[in-house]
Amino acid sequence: MARQDPPPPSALDDPAYRTGVVELLGLLALGEISACERLVADARMAPDLRAKVEVAAMAAAEFHHFEQLRDRLVELGEDPFAAMDPFESIFAAFHAKTRPSDFLEGLVKAYVGDGLASDFYREVAAYLDGETREIVVETMSGTGHSDFVVDQVRSAIEADHRIAGRLALWGRRLMGEALSQAQTVVAERDALSAVVVGGADGPGLDLAAIGRMFTRITEAHTERMETLGLSA
Questions:
Q1: Is residue 35 classed exposed, middle or buried when 0-12, 13-18 and 19+ CB atoms within 10 A define those classes?
Q2: Burial readout 164-199 (b: 16 or more C-beta within 10 A, e: otherwise)
Q3: Most exposed residue of 41, 84, 123, 163, measured as fewest CB within 10 angstroms of its CB?
Q4: Residue 206 confidence (pLDDT)
Q5: What angle do CA 161, 165, 170 make, to 5 degrees?
Q6: Is residue 18 part of a domain?
C-alpha cells in the first residue's frame, strides 16, 4: 500500500485561532438572528403592505445569513447555540437601549446595523482561513434592500424636514451604542479580538489596530448617514 502523506496543516489546528473563529462565527450568527427577530417586530409598524413585505424580505435575508454561519459552526463540529450564547447579553443590552419608537426609526436602525455588520465582515475577512472567509464574504452583501430604506427616509424628510434632526440624533445614538457594545466584546474576548485584527498569522491582540478598525467603520457610517440625507 502506498504511503499517504499527512494532510497539510490548517490554520484551525491552532487552538487559539480556532477559539477566535468559533467566537467570531457565534457573534456574527447571533447578530444575524437578532436582526431578523427585530425586523419581524418592526414590520408590524409598517404603514402599508408594500413596506411590510419589504421589511419581511429584509428579515428573511438576515435569517439566510444566520443559516450560513450556523452551518459553518456545525461543519467545525461546534454547537452553534453554545457559540452564540456568550454574546446574547450584549445584543440584548443593545436592543434594549435602541428600541425604535416608530417605523422610520426601525428602518434607520436596520440600515445602520446592516451597514455596520457588512463593514465589520469586510474588515475581518482578510485575516480568516479560506473556508471561513468564504462564508463571511457571502454574508457581507447586506440584506439588499438599502434602496427601499433610503427612499422611505428621504421621502419622509422631504414631506417633513423636522424628521431629519430626530433621525440624525437617532443614528448617532445607534452608532454610540454599537461601538460601546463592540468595545465590551473586545475587552472580554482576547482570542476573538486577535482573529479580528490578525487572523492565524497576525501578531495577536493589537489594541491600536482595533482602534483603527473602529475609526474606519465610523467613517463608513458617516457616509451611510449622508446617503440617507442625515448628518452623522
A1: buried
A2: bebbbebbeebbebbeebbeebbeebebbbbbbbbb
A3: 41
A4: 64
A5: 135
A6: yes
CATH number of the domain residue 145 falls in: 1.20.1260.10
The domain of 73 spans 14-227
**Position 7 in a domain:** no
Cell (9 digits) for 143: 440584506
Cα 135 to Cα 228: distance, rounded to the nearest angstrom = 29
Backbone angles phi, psi at 57, to 5 degrees: -65, -35
Residue 24's closest CA among 138, 144, 145, 124? Answer: 124
What average pLDDT values come out for the chain (232 residues) when binned by 10 residues?
50 87 94 93 93 92 93 95 94 92 94 86 83 85 76 94 95 92 82 74 61 88 92 78
Cell matching residue 65: 445569513
Residue carrying C-alpha cell 447555540: 81
Going by the DSSP 8-state scheme, the letter that residue 214 receives in this structure is H
Q: Per the domain annotation, does 170 fall within a domain?
A: yes
CA atoms within 13 A on the CB side of 217: 24
What pLDDT is recorded for position 101? Answer: 94
The answer to whether 186 touches 17, Cβ cutoff 8 Å, is: no
Q: What is the pLDDT of residue 5?
A: 46
Cα distances from 69 to residues 7, 92, 156, in angstroms, run 25, 20, 35
The total number of residues shown for the chain amounts to 232
In a domain, 1, yes or no: no
pLDDT at 185: 84
C-beta of residue 177 within 8 angstroms of C-beta of residue 115: no
Structurally, the chain folds into a number of domains equal to 1
